[in-house]
Structure formats: structure tokens, C-alpha cells
Amino acid sequence: MAIGLFFVLLAVLLVIAFPVGGVFGLMSVLPGAIGDLNFGAADVVRSMFAGMNSFTLLAVPLFMVSGMIMAEGGLSKRLFEFFGYFIGNKRAGFPCAVVATCMFYAAISGSSPATVSAVGAMTIPFLVEMGYDIVFATSIVTVAGGLGVIIPPSISYIVYAAAASASPSDLFIAGIIPGLLIGGALMVYCHIYCAKYGEDKEKLMASYNGLREKGFLPLLKESFWALLTPVIILGCIYSGICSPTEAAVISVIYGLFVCVFVYKTIKMKDLGKVFVAGAKTYVNILFVIAAATAFARAMTLLRYPQTISEAVLSVTDNKIVILLLMNIIMLVCGMIIDNIPNIMILTPILVPIAKAVGVDPVHFGIIMTCNLAIGMVTPPMGINLFVASGMTKIPMLKLAKATIPFLIAFLLCLMLITFIPQLSLWLPAVLK
User: Fold this and answer.
1) What is the mean pLDDT of the chain?
2) Would the CA dihedral through 162, 167, 168, 174 be positive or negative?
3) What is the torsional sign of CA 161, 165, 166, 168?
4) pTM: predicted TM-score of the whole model, two decimal places
């Protein structure tokens, strides 16, 4: 089957909103059905089941359930109050506290939409009450929520690790500095915005004084278990005590302990609903990953990744040009396709090119994840925009326009991450 026809059909099916799992399954069968490739429907099914037989991918549903438990348990409110206690009286203090909460919550949920939903539901009304514009308040959470796939533990890293045969532990460690860099850049813009448009100091100080009146120790007592969550999850991984999949099990158990017995924000009778909601969410991703595994197998048998790699390298072997080109491809794909399918499509195609120009697979995984995180905030398919717009009833295009300054800061960080590999690779090297 001609490579051009293959990818045109793939693009058409995705553009007409054919279910993504169905697209992968159909495109896996098609080359064998109409061409001379010995890869029929039975082989596709076997590849799908083989793709699910992965200890690494087992972490995905576990981290998803853990994130849902934490969201139901109301951990975001305690984190926000803790950060607000320290910086709420500074210029842009509470907006920066929102970014910090998103960063910390990202280390709990591992999911971008979950971060937007859990943090936004509590912080957006608070910022509006403090006198901030609702569009600005919503745009902060919409973009900062993208850190949910960059700061470890990240579901995207787990899927990429399985697709690229990379170490999920290395990816988790490599994502820390890029995540902090992007979070810091978003805080800088919050400061610029508040300096330009001003703040209602009277309301802000009233809220800040309310937090100070609680006292540091009572506030620490309230937020301690929430603050300890990423320390336990990531500490177990980085210390070598357990693998990311085993850490995902620990995160579920710890989340249940904290939310049911410590904070008592979840009743035992409600656990069934939480687990069912997690299963409903994961079953869609499960089918997409399974079908995408067969899709990647079909492309490998057709030698499409090698053909594309050779074609690109025959045009230019300039590392900077190739990295810029791949960034553009990933940004565009991120705008029209969801995160997980993108990783499954792009990894087998782009990783060989990245390796050919000397880019470490772990570094490239961080680059890809950052690109796709931007795609989650850009029309037409930006899932963070849909979640935030649904919460606040702000028209999606109006919200997308408000996120542009934040995305400029995000893109500047992306360029630094792309062309300064040590931002991603230094920490894994040190910890090893």
C-alpha cells in the first residue's frame, strides 16, 4: 500500500471524527486486505492483546483511579490554601498559588483534564471573588493544567515509555525540571498581567489575613497528607524501592487511606461509583492503546517509519532544522488529536528520526509531551479548553484567545527544553 495513500486515509478518518480506536483498527487491517502484506485481521487481534500484556501500561488505570480518588477527596483546596499562606500577600500571589497548586496536583493525578477540573472548580470562583477577571482566572487553570502531563507521575510518560521502549522511571525524573521551568514562566506572566491591570488589594489582604489567622501549624496539619502524596509516590520510584507500576498501586492505597480515613471526604459507600467512573474512563483509552499497538505493528511491517526517516534525512541532516520540523508536526497533531493517540501514532515515526540526529529517547519523550500539552489548550480539539469552558460557560474561542500570552511563555520554555537537552537529562544522570 502506497505510503501517501495510507496517511491520507488516516487523516481523512480522523478529520471526519471517526472513533480513534476504530481508525487504528481499520488502518491496521487495510494494508493486508488490499495489498500484499501478510498481516490479516487475526494478526491484528493478536497484536492488540499482546500490546495489553504490559506491566508498564498497568500503571495507567491505577494512576487514573488514584487521580479520581484525590479529586473526590478535595485535596486541591488544601494545597491552594497552603501555597496562598506564603505568597497570597504578594503581587499576583493568589494567581501564582493557582499555578503552584496545578503543579503539585499534577504530581498527584498525572492527568491534565483532571488537574483543570479539580483545581479550577475551587480556584476560579475564589479568584473571581477576589476581583480578578473570570476569563483570566480560567485561562490560568486551563494552561497550568497542561502541567498534569509534564510533571511526574504522568500517564503520557507511561504510554510513551511502552511505545518507545524507554524507561518510565527516567522519564519521570526527566520531567521535573521542564515542569518547574514552565510553571515558573506561567507565574511570570501572572505577575506581568497583575502589574498591568492591577488588583483589589483590600479583598486580597482580607483573604490572606484569613489564611494567616488559621496559623501555620493548623494549615500544615490540614494540608500535610496532601503535600505528602507526591513525595511518597515519586520517592518510592526515585529511591528504587518500587517501579512506576508498583508506585501506582501505592498511590491508590494511599489516596483511599487519606480521603476515607484522614480527611473523611469520601464515604465507603461512594467508592463503587469512583471505581466505576475510573473503569469507564480507562476502557476507552485501553481500546485506543490496544488498537494503536496493532497500528504501529502494521507500520513497522510496511517499513513506513524507516521510509519517512530516510526521506527526512535525505532532505537535511541539520539537527536544529529537524527538531524544529518535528516540533511543528507535534504541535499541529496536538491541536487535532488527543494526547494518547498522538503518542501512539508519532512515537514509531519520529523516534527513529530523533535517534538518527543524536537525540536521546528520554529527552525526545519530554519534547513530545510538552508539545502535546500545548495541543491540549489549543483549538479545535483542546480538551483543557472544553473542560474549562464547560465549568465557566465562557465561549471556547474567547477562552482560547485569553490563553495566548500563557502559551507564548509555554512555547519559549519548549524551545529551551528542545535545544538544551540537559534540562531534561541532567537530573536522571545525577540520580543514577
Assistant:
1) 88
2) negative
3) positive
4) 0.87
- Other CB atoms within 10 A of residue 262 CB: 12
C-alpha cell at 432: 543514577
Beta-carbon contacts of residue 328 (< 8 Å; ≥ 6 apart): none
The conformation of residue 77, written as its DSSP 8-state character, comes to H
* C-alpha dihedral (214, 216, 218, 219), degrees to nearest 10: 80
- Sequence-distant (6+) residues with CB within 8 A of 201 are none
What torsion do the CA atoms of 286, 290, 296, 299 make, to the nearest 10 degrees?
A: -130
116 within 8 A of 74, measured Cβ to Cβ = no
Please report which confidence band the pLDDT of residue 150 belongs to, taking 50, 70 and 90 as the band edges.
very high
Question: Which residue carries 485506543 as its cell?
Answer: 288
1: pLDDT strictly greater than 70: no
* Nearest one of 80, 180, 173 to 425, comparing CA atoms: 173
269 is written with which cell numbers?
459507600
Determine the average pLDDT of the residues in 118-123: 87
Summarised one tens digit per residue, pLDDT across range 216-235 is 888 888 888 888 888 888 88
